[in-house]
Amino acid sequence: MKILCLHGFRTSGSFLHKQISKWDPSIFADFHLAKSTHRGLTKELLTNHEFSSIKEYEMKKENIGIGGQKGDSLYRVATPKMLTWEFPDGMFPAGGKSDIEGIFPPPYFEWFQFNKEFTEYTNLEECISYLCEYITTKGPFDGLLGFSQGATLSALLLGYQAQGKVLKEHPPMKLFVSISGSKFRDPSICDVAYKDPIKVRSVHFIGAKDWLRLPSEDLATAFDNPLIIRHPQGHTVPRLDEAATEQLRSWTKEILLHHSNNASVNKHNLENDTAKMEEHKNILEEECKTKPAECITETKMENGEVKGKEHEDKEEEACKTQKPEGVIEIKMENGAVGLEATQA
Fold first, then answer.
1. Cα–Cα dist 178/175, whole Å
2. DSSP character string of 162-190
3. What torsion do the CA atoms of 212, 215, 217, 218 make, to the nearest 10 degrees?
4. Within a 13 Å sphere around the CA of 24, how many CA atoms are in the beta-carbon half?
């Protein structure tokens, strides 16, 4: 599976990558965490078939020549199944001060700009077009994960896709992880994106001290049967306690099971269709051995030869233009030609 992760306002893909690394790796134990993309860097992540620990990987890294930058977060693989994370940076450089200055190094980015009331947006359409192009060319993706502005934007894409406004040729997303997300407030957007419950499996992290707590709860209502995980923290990717970790772990297992079952059903149906086609082909071949093909009508000629329907069609066409014996043409006053039988 492949997940696109969108960072928050005036942060970066690499910062979101670091935030997600706080979560217990067992949450995704049924997936193979294959690679991470951020800061324009794509690197393969280690598997526990190759190394017993992160420490061992770091010790052997120089000797085996594996790419990556010092300090990059790494995941370990639990099973042969594969999950790919991508953490692109926002379209635009941060247009002002970042809340993570002094906490995480620049550069910082933003996806679009907005007014204080969050009712007017600048560069939003350009951002949507950019992400749709990204998803189409680098996908297909199975789901979206977003924090704050990234979560708000991800939900919009899912709502627009459900209404046939964007990503018409892309398969429907299977999952959505929202952390401190919210709805857009422009009625022209709301009337489309949130018109109907969005039928994507979703989990919504809502912090008790988050200034977007109420908007996050409102966003969850836009989805069909959402899972809500509450935490006592503020506007951040939370560290999960044991109960929240178990909730998220069960949620990912359910999605994987549903995905696997659908894949099995599709494979079974395809195999059945293939078998039926092969059986039908064999029946036709057997029939062709005992009788002529349906497209040929045989006519036995006086000399015993057989002519096909194609020859008969040519003869029929000739008959249409040849005057029957005993018939003459009569030119009418209006220029039309009629036929009249001759007297014997």
1. 10
2. HTTSS-TTSPPP-EEEEES------HHHH
3. -170
4. 15
Scan for tokens 């190394």, then name that residue: 51
Q: Could you tell me how far CA 205 lies from the centroid of its own chain? A: 23
Give the predicted TM-score (pTM) of the model.
0.66
Contact 90/110 with Cβ under 8 angstroms?
yes
Measure Cα distances from 120 to 91, 115, 146, 184, 193 in Å.
Answer: 18, 6, 21, 9, 16
Burial 236-268 (b: 16+ CB within 10 A, else e): bbbebeeebbebbbebbeebbeebeeeeeeeee
Dump pLDDT digits (tens) for 77-118. 233 356 788 999 999 999 999 999 999 999 999 999 999 999
Strands (E) located in 232-320: 299-300, 306-307
